[in-house]
Amino acid sequence: MQEEILAEVVREGEVAFRLLGLTSSEVGRLQSLAPSILEREEEIVSSTLEAIKKMPETSSILQDESTELGLRMVLESLLTFLFMGDYGREHAETVFRAGLAYIQLGLSESVLVGSVGHLVGEAARFLESPTDVPALVKAAYWNLAVVLHAYQHLRMFIIREAAGISGKVLDRLVKLYTAQVLEKMGVKIHYLKSYSLLRKTT
Q: If one looks up domain 2-164 in CATH, what number appears?
């Protein structure tokens, strides 16, 4: 079971890597920046942590020191992964486990996305050149895709266990329900030449 989960995580990481166009030279560049960025780890992580603590959605979760310490450790790990990861199998598995730790802290996907965005924004202030920003953005999206997969996987696992249905059947049900919701909302997808537009039909 565990091997199947991790194999799926690795596949998700490979897909994200290709779609983002993240290159080995960009990964190498981020790794070369790691020492100077991680020297600022305390400042970057503390700023992100303070931003999260100010949110009404997290006030009840981050009341005790142990939870706050746990969140700080996860943020430190994510920052390290961004710049020191090799974006391969072991990296994907480690980031997935960080995602599970985030879930265990009781934080939602929206808080996760916002906190990673804040973390990346703070780290970007200390890049040596603006030309390094695209690589950092790609890396952030890759790590975020793998972490969010932890949320998706755990949610699907609970549903499958509770309902006793296979993953394929669950996927079909999700697509069917999505189509029904879109129909009720009167939404259709119109494909234009260079982009897709969601438009409410009259």
A: 1.10.490.10
Phi, psi of 126 (to 5 degrees): -110, 15
Q: Is the CB of residue 46 less than 8 Å from the CB of residue 119? A: no
Token pair for 179 = 């189509």
Fill in the DSSP letter of residue 86. -
Domain ranges within the chain, ordered by starting residue:
2-164, 167-202
Q: Where in the chain does DSSP place strands (E)?
A: 187-191, 196-200
d(CA 67, CA 106): 9
Report the alpha-carbon distance of residue 19 to residue 113 in Å, rounded: 19
pTM > 0.85: yes or no: no
Residue-wise pLDDT tens digits, 66-121: 888 888 998 999 999 999 999 988 888 888 888 878 777 888 888 888 989 999 99
Residue 122 CB neighbours (<10 A): 19
